[in-house]
Amino acid sequence: xxxxxxxxxxxxxxxxxxxxxxxxxxxxxxxxxxxxxxxxxxxxxxxxxxxxxxxxxxxxxxxxxxxxxxxxxxxxxxxxxxxxxxxxxxxxxxxxxxxxxxxxxxxxxxxxxxxxxxxxxxxxxxxxxxxxxxxxxxxxxxxxxxxxxxxxxxxxxxxxxxxxxxxxxxxxxxxxxxxxxxxxxxxxxxxxxxxxxxxxxxxxxxxxxxxxxxxxxxxxxxxxxxxxxxxxxxxxxxxxxxxxxxxxxxxxxxxxxxxxxxxxxxxxxxxxxxxxxxxxxxxxxxxxxxxxxxxxxxxxxxxxxxxxxxxxxxxxxxxxxxxxxxxxxxxxxxxxxxxxxxxxxxxxxxxxxxxxxxxxxxxxxxxxxxxxxxxxxxxxxxxxxxxxxxxxxxxxxxxxxxxxxxxxxxxxxxxxxxxxxxxxxxxxxxxxxxxxxxxxxxxxxxxxxxxxxxxxxxxxxxxxxxxxxxxxxxxxxxxxxxxxxxxxxxxxxxxxxxxxxxxxxxxxxxxxxxxxxxxxxxxxxxxxxxxxxxxxxxxxxxxxxxxxxxxxxxxxxxxxxxxxxxxxxxxxxxxxxxxxxxxxxxxxxxxxxxxxxxxxxxxxxxxxxxx
Length: 611
Description:
The chain is an alpha+beta fold. It is built from eleven helices and 29 strands.
């Protein structure tokens, strides 16, 4: 155990604003005053520090969308200006409009944001923050500002953000565009991506997305693993690596490869994010002293914490918070991306109809542990931890149950039968863990570890604790895939293995991982000759898809091996890939770019019909 201590977590609203958890208490828009345009300075003044991240969009509705941004101080006023007149405003005019001075006459509206402090954002000795160094784990104060912009017409509308700090200094962003949700039944373009995780090729990848399909998409579907350690604030915002999650997606990234510097692209300012939880969005047990990497790697199953609660009943503690701090926690992810959400699952699992595509997102992931036969890992506990269950890892356990009869499964079963799902032209299910795949992380099976405690016959002392993963009990293959096949799901979009591969089952369900932005773990297929590092066991599929499907060779321009034979995957630390779903054409198109050749073209290498 990492030395958890009881603490009062940060949180709640600041400056009298409510924490955003729904659509209630949304401030009304303020129309632009009728009066002369002016650049007359008013208090506050320009000259504020840059925002922690440029604004990003979440969960558009029929005539609304959320605009979100973050600062390191609560500030005094945070506003979104929306309308045709906004791009033509000077920064001073925008500030005047946001603070009640004389802005341009007409053509804009003002939407004040609600502000709340994030509860768990921290930094430590491994953090890479500009002009700062840390000698221990410390809280890093981050304030989230959320404005719900309403009354939007069809099409794109310009907007800017104005943020005023506690010293009356204002920051005014550039002008971007936002839009309500694509009306049901209309064409949709969606970027499919995952596993950014501060990987080296992310800025190049996103820059090529923008060059190929633009920055104004109908959605960005991220199938988990946005960062590495979710409570480390700099991984979201301002890591000196130039690879923070929001940096790349807003054009603030920076990484030089083969002499070319890439900065990502301003995609999130124009295109709403739709994300799933990956294993890297789940924090382990809380500690006041252990490093954040150590805490991230130290979760235990929720049932273990529940047993401890029942045994101790600590007085004065909030049960749910206590259980999260002694097992695992997704608070930071949920506060960064509070929407979309469902009544049953909150932001952990939800559904939305985007034009003619119905998207269902699930929380399907578990802790990743090493396959090494030594130390705490997938298959055993560390020899020196055997007498102390508080130090056990409990194998590669699943965070949120999704097996048959779980709450999430029952919700999914109902969701797939709703008129929204059945009436959509296409049905897409997104989650993190692969059901079918060639990657290292496609095995062992996605199931609850079967624990065996080995004892000395004479003394009954524990001599080993081991874990097995029966292939027949794989929750995705046994429980989810039959639901998808029966309901006519067109596409399952997942991540986790850092490669590109796709499959199609007998019912016509397509399975796609398109997460190759660096740190590839390889492809384990007959064409590569590589085998997964797993113990010999009938339940361990060391080569090929554990689900038994054959990988599909890209249809347009596959990569080839040394003998010129086409490969059914992209698993490279030099070639980055992304995919786009275009519902008008009814296809998913996958593109690759070789970062070793900065002047080379983006190549369309695969395309398949969803129907």
